[in-house]
């Protein structure tokens, strides 16, 4: 138990001098009475609400519920804003700003007189960004996610965020869907506050945060507008006060075993490839040695959750079927013993778990797909690794050898992908350069390149695609991502030419450019990196200091933590 006098917040609000006067008096202009500064836990509510982040547009409601729980438990809640990353709204990519959000969260927590923090987020980059920042200060920390939107609807059928966008877009290009229907589907897809209701990156991160024990059970799947999520937020406010009393800081919850459970869960739910880069970055902040090879742990885990893009249902259905407690129960003894925000083992999250629809959540011994976890590929085209998601790929393309067609940049791709004379076949391997952390910059979700128009018209819907980019967690296809080192950093991806032979073997973990070392050495002599797209501001800082994808794409000077108390006053 933490003594009131030793609480962190008392260095701000407990002093009977000029500094204490200043801290308390200016807070009192909001109507707070004397007794709330009596040494009770002060809880920061770190809110990423923004009208420019539609996924997080319901967080004001959840913040008020958290406050109720904090007051009930005898704490003092204070809400503060941080940068909000609207995945669908930001250019050139929200990923460019994940580390900036992490800096905002870290420095806000450090600078203010709080004893514990509730992280309110949900949109793809907000969850990892908040956790990275919080880990670097290491106070008692707990997450409340935005929650998924209600199922999209179009012509009486369910449609899913992102996943059906890609399908409809290709259907329009092929002449199989009218533009009028396409626009009508747009209006029916996003029907409520919340994150993508497919198992995209947002819902993936919420699911693995639950598997890591960093939120209360059922947090991952409850719809954003479900009253039970608001109740969960209330309970979270109550719990964070208890965590402060128990001195249950983040590093006492999150261990290597927690990350291993996240990897297992990501495989079981058919989670996003983006989980890899985020988990690597989070581990770097906590000080845990997690590397790309650790993700092989999930490669033999079967796919249990029948959600888009790896299946047919949506997060609302996943919730009603039992949600993450059922998935964790199915994983059973595979789960590593690990602590949680309840200060109990992760196995307690499975107590009372019951599956109500086996077509949505499959049993471990009767899975939807066997061995569907992410695969790590290596070879001379990706010496430091690349990622592929078999559960969303075409099986026969996971073992493939063919000639490459190369796009030197995203502009090259957009200008030429629909050329009627593009020299490609269904077997061609599409290669895209210049879309890694440094190159774009920010490593955007463009790895799931469109199928060339000339092939779309022939009915082709999947091809092997290789890049140093990411792809949306809602996307699908035989897409090889996160090639490291990236082209801009001088990786062999930069040297690939149209006509080069490439061999892919997911089963063997291989990604090989079938060009001799001598030829590659000669090409390297002639290669020059592209000029940076930014010469000032945060983007320049990012380009100069960002790590490669296999290291989590954090900034090199942000890895680790600083838990030293702030002793210098502002006046």
Summarize the structure.
The chain is an alpha/beta fold.
Q: How would you sum up this structure, described in words?
A:
With 571 residues, the protein is an alpha/beta fold. The protein has 17 helices and 14 strands. It has helices at 10-13, 18-28, 59-72, 98-111, 126-135, 163-174, 179-189, 201-211, 227-246, 256-269, 274-286, 315-321, 323-331, 410-416, 453-456, 517-526, 537-545, and strands at 42-47, 76-81, 116-121, 141-145, 152-154, 157-159, 375-379, 382-388, 399-407, 429-432, 465-467, 479-480, 501-505, 510-513. The chain is globular. The model has no long low-confidence stretch (mean pLDDT 96).
Give a quick set of tags describing it:
17 helices, 4-stranded parallel sheet, 6-stranded mixed sheet, 571 residues, alpha/beta, globular
């Amino acid at each position: 138990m933490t003594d009131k006098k030793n609480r962190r917040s008392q260095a701000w609000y407990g002093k009977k001098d000029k500094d204490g006067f200043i801290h308390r008096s200016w807070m009192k202009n909001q109507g707070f009475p004397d007794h709330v500064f009596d040494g009770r836990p002060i809880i920061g509510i770190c809110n990423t609400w923004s009208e420019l982040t539609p996924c997080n547009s319901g967080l004001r409601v959840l913040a008020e519920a958290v406050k109720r729980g904090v007051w009930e438990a005898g704490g003092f809640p204070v809400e503060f804003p941080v940068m909000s990353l609207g995945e669908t709204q930001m250019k050139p990519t929200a990923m460019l700003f994940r580390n900036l959000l992490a800096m905002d969260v870290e420095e806000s927590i450090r600078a203010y007189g709080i004893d514990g923090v509730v992280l309110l987020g949900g949109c793809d980059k907000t969850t990892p960004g908040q956790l990275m920042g919080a880990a670097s200060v290491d106070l008692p920390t707990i997450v409340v996610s935005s929650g998924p939107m209600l199922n999209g609807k179009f012509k009486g059928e369910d449609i899913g965020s992102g996943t059906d966008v890609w399908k409809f877009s290709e259907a329009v290009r092929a002449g199989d869907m009218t533009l009028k229907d396409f626009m009508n589907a747009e209006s029916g897809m996003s029907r409520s506050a919340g994150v993508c209701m497919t198992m995209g990156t947002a819902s993936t991160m919420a699911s693995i945060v639950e598997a890591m024990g960093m939120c209360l059970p059922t947090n991952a799947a409850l719809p954003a507008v479900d009253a039970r999520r608001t109740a969960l937020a209330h309970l979270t406010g109550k719990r964070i006060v208890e965590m402060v009393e128990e001195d249950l800081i983040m590093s006492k919850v999150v261990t290597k075993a927690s990350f291993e459970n996240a990897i297992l869960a990501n495989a079981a739910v058919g989670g996003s490839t983006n989980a890899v880069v985020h988990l690597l970055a989070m581990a770097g902040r906590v000080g845990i040695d997690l590397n790309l090879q650790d993700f092989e742990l999930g490669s033999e885990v079967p796919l249990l959750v029948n959600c888009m893009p790896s299946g047919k249902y949506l997060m609302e259905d996943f919730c009603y079927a039992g949600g993450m407690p059922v998935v964790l129960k199915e994983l059973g003894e595979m789960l590593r013993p690990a602590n949680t925000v309840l200060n109990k083992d992760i196995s307690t999250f499975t107590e009372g778990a019951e599956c109500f629809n086996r077509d949505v959540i499959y049993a471990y011994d009767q899975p939807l797909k066997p061995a569907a976890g992410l695969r790590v590929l290596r070879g001379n085209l990706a010496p430091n690794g690349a990622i592929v998601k078999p559960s969303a790929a075409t099986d026969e393309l996971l073992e493939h050898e063919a000639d490459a067609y190369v796009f030197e940049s995203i502009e090259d791709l957009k200008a030429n992908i629909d050329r009627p004379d593009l020299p490609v076949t269904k077997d061609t391997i599409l290669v895209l350069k210049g879309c890694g952390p440094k190159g774009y910059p920010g490593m955007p979700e463009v790895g799931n390149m469109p199928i060339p128009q000339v092939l779309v018209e022939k009915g082709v819907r999947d091809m092997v695609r290789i890049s140093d980019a990411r792809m949306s967690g809602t996307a699908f296809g035989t897409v090889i991502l996160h090639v490291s080192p990236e082209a801009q950093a001088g990786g062999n991806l930069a040297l690939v030419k149209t006509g080069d032979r490439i061999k892919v073997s997911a089963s063997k973990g291989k990604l090989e450019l079938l060009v001799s070392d001598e030829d590659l050495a000669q090409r390297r002599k002639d290669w020059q990196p592209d000029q940076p797209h930014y010469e000032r501001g945060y983007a320049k800082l990012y380009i100069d200091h960002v790590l490669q994808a296999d290291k989590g794409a954090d900034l090199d000077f942000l890895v680790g933590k600083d838990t030293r108390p702030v002793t210098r006053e502002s006046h």
